[in-house]
Amino acid sequence: MAQSEYMYKKQPVALTLLCVVAGALISALNINSFVNAGGLFPSGFNGLTILIQRIFSTFFNLEVPFTAINILLNVVPAIIAYKIIGKKFTLFSCLMIGLSSVFVDVLPLSSITYDPLLIGVFGGIFNGLAISIALKGNASSGGTDFIAMSVSVKTNLSTWNYVFAFNVCVLIIAGYLFGWDKALYSIIFQFCSTQVINLLHQKYKQMTLFVITDIPDQLCEELLIYTHHGITRFDGEGAYSRRKHTLLYTVVGRGEAKQIIRKIKEIDPNAFVNVAKTEYVEGRFHQAPIE
C-alpha cells in the first residue's frame, strides 16, 4: 500500500455527516433527559450555556434560548480552530453545534431517572460518547473541544484532563450560585465524560514499537513508504542463538499501531514486535492531518 493510501486516505463526507448528526442527537437527548432532570452542568460550552440560561432565568426572570447562547459562545473558538486545525473540521463542528443546539430546543424533555448519582454517571458516559463520535468523524462539539484539539495539533499531547480542570473551575461558580450538591454531582458527570473520551479518542496518543527482524532493509523500506514515521536501527546478537539480528525502533500514533503491526507481519512473519505505551514525545513526530 502506498503512503498516500494509508496516511492521507480521506474520510468519506457521508461518514462525517453521520457522526456529526449522531453526536448532536445523543448530546441533545443527554441534556434533555439527564442534565436538566438532575439540574447538572455538563462539560464544555454546553455547560457554560446552561449556566448562563439558569442565571438569566433565576436572577433576571428571562428565558434565553439554548441555541442563541451556545452559538454566540462558540464564535471565537471556531475562529481559532479554523486557523489552526482547518476549514472542514471547523465547518463540520459548527454544523454539530448548530444541530445539537436546535435539538435541545425542539426535542421534548424526558426524565429517565431523578437519582443524581445515576444521572452524573450515565449522563457523563453519554456526553463523552457524543463527543467521541464527533471526534471520530473529524468534528467536535465546539467550545473547549475546539481549544483542546487546537492545542493537541500544536503539541501532539492529549489535553482532555486539562479541559476537565477548566470545567471544575466553572463548576465552582455554578456551585456558589445554585448549590454545591449540583456542582459536586456535575464533577462526577464531567469526570465520567472525560474518561470516556480518553478511552475512545486515541488520535493524539503514541505507542513505541520495538521490532526484531532478520530482513531490516526490506522492512525499513516498506515501512518508510507505508508511514511518515522515522525508524532507528540497532544491530545486535541473540543471547541464546548467537545469531545476528536487527532491532528497529519507532514511535507511531496509537490509532496506527495495529495497522502497522499487521504490515510488519505481512513483510516478515517471523518478526518479534514489542509494543510499549509512550507517555510523551519531544522532537519531530509526524501527526497525520485531520483533513
Automatic annotation (TrEMBL):
Chain segments annotated as transmembrane: 12-35, 55-82, 89-111, 117-138, 159-177, 183-200
Subcellular compartments: Cell membrane
Cross-referenced Pfam families: DUF2179, YitT_membrane
Membrane topology per record: Multi-pass membrane protein
Keyword terms of this UniProt record: Cell membrane, Membrane, Transmembrane, Transmembrane helix
Keyword check for Cell membrane: yes
Annotated InterPro entries: DUF2179 (IPR019264), N-reg_PII/ATP_PRibTrfase_C (IPR015867), UPF0750_membrane (IPR051461), YitT (IPR003740)
Domain DUF2179: from-to ranges: 229-283
Keyword Cell membrane assigned: yes
Protein name: YitT family protein
Originating organism: Massilicoli timonensis
Lineage: Bacteria, Bacillati, Bacillota, Erysipelotrichia, Erysipelotrichales
